[in-house]
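// run 5 | inverse folding | seed 20
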């Protein structure tokens, strides 16, 4: 193959230029002034990651300087929202450091709204502060760019590399330039994965030319998990997918409307419906969790879903009841124009004036992520001063693979980080990675040249498949010789939606459905060897599909393993319809053996360190 191979050496390799990766690069430089820190991003860090469009609020801020909240409060909140199952040590660690991160953002030029009476940051809710966030990501990216020794944009990382002398130690990564087609081999003493979680593993509600209109970033292609799983890293809570209540069709956020503007959601008859489903919900999860304050997010979804199934939809946000001043109207529009412009377009296209008529709400398709309100991701060692013994085996935020760290969507068990918490977790991972590299001294990882050569062949195989088979097209884009990435993606979305609890089944699944889903996933994984890519853009899509399919299988196996309905409103096990604290007040865990294709499932204990 006439493809150039470029080698890049680093002490610390950061994969993913979102908030987690930017935080990792920034903090690695602070503690490792003399280290070679390389950041790799498949797009461009100026506008990449979940905050690419902008953001109207920072959703994780304690306000300790004003005694508004303490880290212990945030642990209680996250624990209640996830119905009892979070890594309290990691949630606490993020919470106690996040305020300093937000203060840095303000120093770097992020405009944060202030309460004119108190001078405090303007609160949208208990944990959220309002910002003018159109340029949020470029401001943070500038700090990361200045901190890194080198930033490689437009590099799709496809695989992590393992040390040939120590099988459970990371040694770097490989990928390719989506512009030049060069093959990149990144050699590293430590690797921090800050890649994105998974959108588009489930069929989205938006179809046709609107398929890219999802809530979570459509370019988040599960690399946070697709890179880690083949290394054998222990993963946790992959069944804990998230479903969002959002404005219909545009996926506009509802937080500012509920929390700041004090709007309410009703059924089609103008009735507030949540309370009437309370007893029904208690029968599923028990009184302990329905008494959580605030009411858990998944249970709010559950009430909405039950109301729609009862025939009382559509569900409406009563915007016209709260937009009684010009200031509030401005806030309502800016909430979308900061971050979800498509929702403002929906209003315009459907003749909706929010001052005069309500707007529909709906639940989204599921997403898999570790940075928002759920906690899928890698099982990681916790902070030395507060992690229980069995949560701690090495450096803070290091996975079960030596030298492999994570932040943001990559980290399991630690929900409610959002943008500021993901950057904070990147900082914590960066600090630990520097210490790990210092402790290595001369014992640095070694690459297996045969593995690198084999991966190079595999990475570019879709181009060869297309080149050889393109003249065999029988109709349109259908070929007997290869599968296009889009066709593979649509196949994945359909089977996950129908068998693993997507919106078309009202998020309901069962053992027979999950078993059938695994059969179909196995067939799809076999066919991935015949992916065809016309160009480098399609080659990127091919490897995004690889990451999504492997992640989807992990989600399916975890959902099958947890024999209860822990989070009604996110998904339901029809064959185990109730929460079961006796047997399942645990983390689920999996380890994948890439050589044999076997999955090992297990339970991990939940320790409550905050009263």
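// decoded
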């Amino acid at each position: 193959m006439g493809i150039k191979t470029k080698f890049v050496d680093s002490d610390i390799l950061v994969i993913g230029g979102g908030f987690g990766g930017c935080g990792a690069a920034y903090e690695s430089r602070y503690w490792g002034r003399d280290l070679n820190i390389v950041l790799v991003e498949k797009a461009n860090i100026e506008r990449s990651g979940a905050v690419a469009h902008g953001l109207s609020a920072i959703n994780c801020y304690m306000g300790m300087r004003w005694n508004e909240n303490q880290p212990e409060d945030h642990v209680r909140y996250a624990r209640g929202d996830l119905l009892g199952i979070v890594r309290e040590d990691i949630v606490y660690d993020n919470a106690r450091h996040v305020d300093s991160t937000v203060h840095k953002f303000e120093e770097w030029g992020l405009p944060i709204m202030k309460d004119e009476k108190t001078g405090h940051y303007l609160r949208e809710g208990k944990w959220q502060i309002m910002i003018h966030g159109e340029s949020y990501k470029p401001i943070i990216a500038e700090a990361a760019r200045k901190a890194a020794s080198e930033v490689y944009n437009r590099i799709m990382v496809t695989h992590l590399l393992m040390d040939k002398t120590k099988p459970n130690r990371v040694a770097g990564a490989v990928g390719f330039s989506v512009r030049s087609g060069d093959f990149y081999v990144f050699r590293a003493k430590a690797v921090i994965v800050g890649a994105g979680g998974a959108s588009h593993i489930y069929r989205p509600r938006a179809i046709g030319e609107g398929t890219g209109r999802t809530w979570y970033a459509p370019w988040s292609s599960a690399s946070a998990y697709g890179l880690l799983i083949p290394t054998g890293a222990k993963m946790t809570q992959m069944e804990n997918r998230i479903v969002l209540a959002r404005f219909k069709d545009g996926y506009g956020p509802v937080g500012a409307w509920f929390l700041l503007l004090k709007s309410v959601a009703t059924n089609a008859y103008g009735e507030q419906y949540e309370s009437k489903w309370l007893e029904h919900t208690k029968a599923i999860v028990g009184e302990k969790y329905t008494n959580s304050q605030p009411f858990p997010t998944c249970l709010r979804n559950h009430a909405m879903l039950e109301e729609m199934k009862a025939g009382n939809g559509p569900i409406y946000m009563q915007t016209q009841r709260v937009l009684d001043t010009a200031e509030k109207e401005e806030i309502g529009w800016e909430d979308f124009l900061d971050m979800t412009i498509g929702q403002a377009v929906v209003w315009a296209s459907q003749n909706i004036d929010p001052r005069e008529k309500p707007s529909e709400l709906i639940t989204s398709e599921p997403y898999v992520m570790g940075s928002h309100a759920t906690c899928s991701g890698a099982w990681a060692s916790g902070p030395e001063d507060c992690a229980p013994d069995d949560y701690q085996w090495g450096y803070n935020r290091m996975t079960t693979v030596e030298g492999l760290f994570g932040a943001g969507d990559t980290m399991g068990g630690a929900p409610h980080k959002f943008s500021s918490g993901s950057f904070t977790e990147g900082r914590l991972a960066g600090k630990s990675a520097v210490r790990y590299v210092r402790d290595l001294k001369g014992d640095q990882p070694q690459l297996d040249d045969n593995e690198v050569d084999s991966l190079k062949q595999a990475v570019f195989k879709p181009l060869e498949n297309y080149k050889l088979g393109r003249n065999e097209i029988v109709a349109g884009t259908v070929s007997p010789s290869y599968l296009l990435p889009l066709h593979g993606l649509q196949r994945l979305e359909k089977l996950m939606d129908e068998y693993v609890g997507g919106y078309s089944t009202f998020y309901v699944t069962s053992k027979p459905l999950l078993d059938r889903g695994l059969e179909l996933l196995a067939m799809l994984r076999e066919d991935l060897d015949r992916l065809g890519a016309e160009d480098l853009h399609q080659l990127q899509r091919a490897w995004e599909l690889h990451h999504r399919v492997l992640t989807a299988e992990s989600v399916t196996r975890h959902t099958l393993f947890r024999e209860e309905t822990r989070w009604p409103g996110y998904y339901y096990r029809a064959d185990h319809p109730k929460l079961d604290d006796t047997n399942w007040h645990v983390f689920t865990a999996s380890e994948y053996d890439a050589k044999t294709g076997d999955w090992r499932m297990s339970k991990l204990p939940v320790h409550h360190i905050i009263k």
